[in-house]
Amino acid sequence: MDNAGYVALTRQTGLMREMQSVANNLANMSTTGFRKEGVIFSEYIKALDGREDSLSMAAASGRMTDESQGALSQTGGTFDLAIEGKGFFMIETAAGERLTRAGSFTPNGEGELVTMDGNRLLDNGGSPVFVPPDARAITIAPDGTLSADGRPLAQIGLYLPTDPKQLFRENGVRFRVDGDVEPVETAKIMQGYLESSNVNPVIEISRMIEVQRAYELGQSFLEQEDQRIRSVMQTLGR
Known about the structure:
three-stranded antiparallel beta sheet
């Protein structure tokens, strides 16, 4: 395969990764707290020997998370929490502390607020958030202060990575930070609300069509290039 074929092949690989990203976004358009993901294309240029033009090849190894606010839907649930503004809830998992925007929590058998997967929600001091089982009224203020029957018990923490480049997606709604986090004081916690996915299905479907067409054009070029090389080899072999 010559340089043109290698360039087209790297482009096809990147388009395939972008198609997978778009498909994953569409599959999670109804997932609470989901953040849209995109692929970052980069260019690698290398000078060739002699008088040949330089060679440019594309790579799509980088990924980007869209931090735009999703729509807030009112549920009325006591432990349904949505974040208005930037920031993440901190949860405790078997693999360590993780960040999430999915705010659907429920008390476990010990009275601790946990996610649907059983991961404990942490307060601004890094401790599990406890809810007394005999409490008649639970209120959560915009600053995260949780009160039972009017008595403050804990303050739910909101965090952001100190370096945004150290935020890595583990699944649709859970993120790992390979570095430090810092508390967020400007965001608000809305009790009785959940944040919807920030995926716009119309934009994602349009993007899927564009990527598919670009991939088909690249595949057509590779087939034509393969046929050209075969023809040259057959001609020289006579």
